[in-house]
Amino acid sequence: MDQTVLVTGGASGIGLAVAERVLNEGGRVAIVDREPESIARTRNHLDHAGDRVRFDTLDVTNEAEIERVVKAIDAAFGPLTGLVNSAGIAQDVPFFETTAAQFRKIYDVNVVGTFLVSKAAAIAMRGRRHGAIVNISSVSGLRGNLGRAAYGSSKGAVVTLTQVMAVELAPLGIRVNAVAPGPVETPMVAALHTSATREGWIGEVPMKRYSTPDEIAGTICHLLDDTRSSYVTGQIIAVDGGFTAGGLIGG
Ligand SMILES: NC(=O)c1ccc[n+]([C@@H]2O[C@H](COP(=O)([O-])OP(=O)(O)OC[C@H]3O[C@@H](n4cnc5c(N)ncnc54)[C@H](O)[C@@H]3O)[C@@H](O)[C@H]2O)c1
């Protein structure tokens, strides 16, 4: 893959799986994450990639830092051809217990963070009239899942943001799509899902299992790659073992 891709939240889970795929396919990756310890661990893990990988500590809610870091990456490591917005946070809270502070915190990372990094990357890409952005929504942004007033609606906002960006950036040669994963075995889910939650998901997913991070990364890389998806923009692809297709699915 002849790409230079910026991955937010790239030190863990789906973001890390994207970074590994792009590197395995011969591309270059700039990983940003807010956790310095995760970055240090990932740096060791990806040591074999040499100068095809770069690491920066960045919180996607920090507007001034985003502009500085994305510009620096584009100038010194780029030109950027792709962006994957994988940084995200989640919480399962019943509707009546959800506070405004929780709502704002989740929106700040999942929605405003996705917007700000996309804007900085698109400013770099627009002069070259070429680029692909992939956002991460969720099946919880497409369906009313229990306990997900804040998280689910933030991922619904990512759907609309993706569509608006696709429309406005198409004339600039930038494609924008999103994936909407079902349950994926990542550190986020390990912290969030109880055994009852797991049983619930397995019962509702026709394929009767969680996804691996690499299965999500495969679809993301398809959407990044012009040789495979040059006429695809504004789409939300559910990668969910059939969850959003289902109605009554049987035992
Ligand atoms: N795991 C799932 O089942 C699942 C399902 C649907 C959607 N998603 C979405 O996929 C994305 C990746 O999730 P994951 O499961 O890989 O989680 P994860 O926790 O393993 O990885 C997320 C990474 O984002 C980083 N991050 C969080 N807030 C940040 C911030 N403010 N600035 C920079 N980095 C930040 C974390 O440090 C972490 O390294 C998220 O947007 C999540 O909502 C996950």
Provide key terms for this protein.
9 helices; binds nicotinamide-adenine-dinucleotide; Rossmann fold; single chain; seven-stranded parallel sheet; alpha/beta; 251 residues
- Give the biggest sheet: 7 strands, parallel
CATH superfamily, by name, is NAD(P)-binding Rossmann-like Domain
If helices are DSSP runs of H or I spanning 4 or more residues, what is the number of helices? 9
CATH class: Alpha Beta
Q: What's the count of strands?
A: 7
Calculate the terminal CA-CA distance, rounded to whole Å.
41 Å
- Helices and strands, in N-to-C order? EHEHEHEHEHEHHHHE
Small molecules held by this entry: nicotinamide-adenine-dinucleotide
Q: How does the overall form come out from the CA principal axes? A: globular
Q: Indicate the radius of gyration in whole angstroms.
A: 17 Å
**Stretches with pLDDT under 50, minimum 5 residues:** none
What would you say the CATH architecture is?
Answer: 3-Layer(aba) Sandwich
Structural class: alpha/beta
Q: What's the domain count? A: 1
- Give helix % range: 40-55%
Strand percent estimate: 15-25%
CATH topology: Rossmann fold
Mean pLDDT: 97
